Amino acid sequence: MSEKKAAKDFVLAVEGLTVSFDGFKAVNDLSFYVDEGEIRVIIGPNGAGKTTVLDLICGKTKSTAGSIKFRGMELTKMTEHAIVHNGVGRKFQNPSIYEDLTVFENLELSFPRGRSVLGALFFRRDAEVVEAVEEVAETIFLKDQLHTTAGLLSHGQKQWLEIGMLLIQKPDLLMLDEPVAGMSVAERKRTAELLNRITKGRSVIVIEHDMQFVEDIAHRVTVMHQGKTLSEGSMERVKNDPKVVEVYLGH
Amino acid sequence: MSMPNQSSMENSALVENPLSQHGLKALFPKHDIIYLAILAVFLGILLPMTLDIFRLNLVGKYLTYAFVAVGLVLCWGYGGILSLGQGVFFGLGGYCMAMFLKLEASDPESTKIQSTPGIPDFMDWNQITELPWFWEPFYSLPFALIAILVVPTIFAYIIAVAMFKRRVGGVYFAIITQAIASILTILIIGQQGYTGGVNGITDLRTLLGWDIRTDSAKYILYYVNFILLMLCLLAAQFVRKSKLGRLLVAMRGREDRVRFSGYDVSSFKIFVFCLGAAFSAIGGAMFTLQVGFMSPSFVGIVPSIEMVIFCAVGGRLSIFGAVYGTLLVNWAKTTFSESFPELWLFAMGALFIGVVMAFPNGLAGIYKSHIEPLFSRKPKMFEKKPSTPKPASAPEPVSAEPPSIPGSISAMGK
């Protein structure tokens, strides 16, 4: 597996990734590759290091060893905002939105323009911005709530809003940490629908526990256990892998 | 950033679009322009007409603190960066002004009884026989005016870069700024020969030959101070209403989300901290001009915390509130400390605790919740208020869809 090949063929190539917190290896020599347009779901028991992997990719946590290449660019050396500028978007586990601002303002702040100090100071809310915000609001079912303070939204709506805040950035790689956690059944359905729509034309990494949801959306599944890949492949294959059944699924 | 050929199209689209924010209306939405006008009339006409020059000069002195309070609204109220060391910047601005005035007051003619004529008196008392190199440029007024703005801003920039790039924030930042205020006070007092020590730089007389101690000069300085304060309020309003203002609010609650939306969070914090420092410095310089001296007692921990109290009492989210808060607390301070000097500090502490506990948004918050509704009786008011959080747009058909147990492995992951 030459590095050149990895850089060219995959959107994301994670190789030998290791992070150690005071000697505890939360992620240990992990490697995986995400294809262009693929929806990859990472599953695994609590503490397997799933969220840490996303933290490492988006730069929130610095790796101890290994490399993360996004379209041939090494992400481990980049600052968080540079990683975002290069097209990696990340949703956090708990809905992370600006509660004091309106839905409109939440989306507007995520619009990829005027990201420097001067740019923000002289940012103008022009037709392009308004259009983009309205379009995304429609996608995430919040068109009627544009002027609602985000803190007043329901939990599910907050999750959608954060997904919308990513969408407006038009990332090439979208990383979602438990997008349906805490949602009602109806909301889950709508979210699955939403994800199927928005994942067209981009690569997605999703962490999720809800197996029905995983089956609905995953192209390929990576099962993590104790910071390592336990199994990888289609949902069908992973489900029948005896190792996976033993540590995760087969209770 | 937008392409020039788009602009006409944009404008036409914006006329219809209720979301558009342009021009004066964008800068002063709702009642803000009225508030600014009321404040301008109050400070610019009402007070000068009703107060004698002694009292007006006092108000002018209080208003120099308002510069600091307005800066704190942006820094603390909006950005969530609590600085307990704004006195440092107030003091640096004030000292830059004082150095110029002192040199002018120390011409060889009026200092001929000194053993070294032509240098400030306190240097002579400390056996210094030559003007220190860093005092030399302060013979020039343009240099002094630039230094008033640049020196504190650069100092703030150094502090901010050192702290915010390392992601030091919150209480730690507050404590460090407090330590810096303390260190600077000790430094100024310790270096008596260069700074005038604990007495500060006193006996300032003229500005380019114009006597600043006369009544007419005091009127003029009051108005200069007033105009500068209005300009700072405009600048603060511009920042508040720009996307940067909304980013500050966003950062206050969800710093990580802002960072992972592609913003370099530290650069925004550095900017707003430097802006607050520059405002404070203007206030400090005007203080020196109006009061006629500058001393370390306006640099240290106590004055810095007092400035935060002015801001808190006025309302840390309101730039106009901060001005009223400053005036009110200072008026109270002058009144009370005349009759009960030893009780004042306790009263101040009680005021701070009381405001934070009972009225977290200060005077401006009380105004917003109690007085503003009286003015606007239009039914529009009620439409605007989102009465209750609306339920999820789709009523959830829980009963229609029993919690399904899909597939053999579902729900096991939980």
Helix/strand layout:
The complex is a heterodimer of chains A (251) and B (414).
Chain A: H1 3-9, E1 10-21, E2 24-35, E3 39-43, H2 50-58, E4 65-70, E5 73-74, H3 80-85, E6 88-91, H4 103-110, H5 117-121, H6 127-139, H7 155-167, E7 173-177, H8 185-198, E8 203-207, H9 211-217, E9 220-225, E10 228-233, H10 235-239, H11 242-249
Parallel strand pairs in A: 3-8, 3-9, 6-7, 7-8
Antiparallel strand pairs in A: 1-2, 1-4, 4-5, 9-10
Helix pairs in contact in A: 4-6, 4-7
Chain B: H1 7-16, H2 23-27, H3 32-50, H4 53-78, H5 86-105, H6 121-125, H7 141-164, H8 170-190, H9 192-195, E1 206-207, E2 210-211, H10 215-241, H11 243-253, H12 255-259, H13 265-291, H14 301-314, H15 319-339, H16 344-358, H17 362-375, H18 380-384
Antiparallel strand pairs in B: 1-2
Report on the structure:
The complex is a heterodimer of chains A (251) and B (414). Chain A has 251 residues and is an alpha/beta fold. Helix content of chain A is 38%, strand content 25%. Chain A has helices at 3-9, 50-58, 80-85, 103-110, 117-121, 127-139, 155-167, 185-198, 211-217, 235-239, 242-249, and strands spanning 10-21, 24-35, 39-43, 65-70, 73-74, 88-91, 173-177, 203-207, 220-225, 228-233. A six-stranded mixed β-sheet of chain A has the order 6-7-8-3-9-10, sandwiched between helices. Chain A has a four-stranded antiparallel β-sheet with strand order 2-1-4-5. In chain A, 50% of the residues are buried. Chain B has helices at 7-16, 23-27, 32-50, 53-78, 86-105, 121-125, 141-164, 170-190, 192-195, 215-241, 243-253, 255-259, 265-291, 301-314, 319-339, 344-358, 362-375, 380-384; strands at residues 206-207, 210-211. Chain B has a two-stranded antiparallel ribbon with strand order 1-2. Chain B is globular. Chain B starts with 6 loop residues before the first helix and ends in a 30-residue tail after the last helix. The model of chain B is unreliable at 1-21 and 379-414 (pLDDT under 50). The interface between A and B is large, with 68 and 57 residues.
